[in-house]
Structure formats: structure tokens, C-alpha cells
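ARCHIVE CARD
Drawer: 12
Card no.: 0347
Subject: one protein chain, sequence and derived structure
Cross-reference: see card 0346
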Amino acid sequence: MIKMLVVDDEIEICDFLKNFFSEKQYEVVTALNGQDAIKKIQDINPELMLLDVRMPGLSGIEVLRKVRDHNKSVKIIMVTAVENQDLMRLARELGANDYITKPFSLDYLENNVMEKVAGLAA
């Protein structure tokens, strides 16, 4: 079973994505802020992260930077409500595997996740 960490400061989004991906046979853990995400990454060692860019305190970009300092293998999809080319470029430079904007269709998100984790559950 693929372990996924969903990081978003909106609890409704975390809960919705946890329910959606749990039904698709992913093991999903959520974090509501960057500090909690850093701790949970160390605890569960996820194969994939859905990481909100804009959060109070430790931003998604800062979390990405810290994760990539220690973990090059986790697949990270940055998620944001604001389309910003400079942030997209920075996220890619720091090692994000993809960058998607809200609102997104669940089909698009699911296909993107499946593409990132293809072969990991074998």
C-alpha cells in the first residue's frame, strides 16, 4: 500500500483527500501545517506528498526545501490556489515532481498521483 501525506492548512481539504485516496487503497496521513508535516515525514516515510504551497508558519516551499535536504525519493506534488510562474519554477528547482492549481478535478489529481507512484507498489 502506498503511503501518502496530505499537507494543507484547510482541514476540509485534508479530510476530503484522505477519504478519497483511502478508498483507492492508499494509506493516507494528513498534516495541517508545515511543522507537523516535517514530523510526520520522519515518522511515516511517505512515498508521495500532496503539499499546499501557501500555509501559515512554515510554507510549502520551506517544507519542500527541508524534505529535499534529507529525502530525494519521496514524490512531491505542490498544490496551490494561486497560479504563479515564479513559484512554479522555484518549486521545480527545489525538487517538486509536479505543481497543480486549485480547483482541480479529482480525475486529474488521481491520474497525476498514479503516474508519480507507478511501480512503487509492485
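Annotation on reverse: The chain has a mean pLDDT of 93. The chain has five helices and five strands.
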